[in-house]
Amino acid sequence: MALSLAIEALDAGYGAVKALRGVTLHVEAGETVALLGTNGNGKSTLMKCVMGLVRPDRGRLALSIDGVAHDLTKLSPEAIVDLGVALVPEGRRLFPKLTVTENLMLGAFRKMARNAIQQNLALVFDTFPVLKERRSQLAGTMSGGQQQMLAIARALMSSPRLLLIDEPSVGLSPLLVSQTIAKIGELKQRVGLTVLMAEQNFNQAIRIADRGYIIVHGEIAVAAQSVDELKANDIVKRLYLGGVA
Ligand SMILES: Nc1ncnc2c1ncn2[C@@H]1O[C@H](COP(=O)(O)OP(=O)(O)OP(=O)(O)O)[C@@H](O)[C@H]1O
Questions:
Q1: Where do the ABC transporter domain residues begin and end (predicted)?
Q2: Does a structural domain hold residue 49?
């Protein structure tokens, strides 16, 4: 199944707060695209728009699945999950008093066949052995890194083709950030996912990204076709690489 995402001239916000202005961005099937920006620049809002959790004021938001376009602006979050999109939210949003397995089961969706759920469970336990070892442990008692793995694994339970990952590095030590990013890269190879990852951590994100965008004050300031192009950009040098633009 070939799935791609196209966002054009998107405006979104919260009343008087204009969080996104004229955002145009695309993610092609099989790509890993980084959406880079510091706090409050609109990354989470963009992810929520794709999931149907925030309704845009203007613009186009569409998935193409095997050449058939689906307008996401009119669909419920459940219908968007049904189409093969899943979000790993910022701050994980796990259920701390539920076990690892219970959290995972909540990621599977209602209409899924029992054997598909079992297959997904086997896949995530194989990908994240620590979750298998700790499957009966309460999510809230696990380390930050393990909780991030669980949040990613839970999103995988709905068999997504497009995974949106919102700031996987938040609250993790440098080593755990590195391990989490490597795991996302590994997963991508393994399951053939398309990934849009919001990150503040430029150097970690570009380890697995094919290309990236820089978002500043709700607008796309840089759209680069490759990581090399991103690194050579003057705005990127100024913001992330300590250079003088
Ligand atoms: N529920 C909300 N109500 C009002 N304003 C909001 C809401 N959520 C976000 N905002 C504002 O929208 C803007 C974009 O926020 P957003 O969370 O999308 O940015 P971000 O780049 O993901 O940063 P962060 O990492 O802090 O989440 C900010 O000015 C923020 O204060």
A1: 5-242
A2: no
Rounded distance, CA 63 to CA 50, Å?
Answer: 9
pTM equals 0.91
pLDDT recorded at residue 184: 86
Please tell me the total count of domains within the chain. Answer: 1
Ligand 1 — pocket residues by CB below 6 A?
14, 17, 19, 37, 39-45, 90, 167
Ligand 1 centroid to Cα of residue 19, in Å, is: 7
Q: Domain for residue 200, yes or no? A: yes
Q: Give the CATH number of the domain where residue 151 resides.
A: 3.40.50.300
ipTM entry: 0.94
What is residue 133's three-state secondary structure?
helix
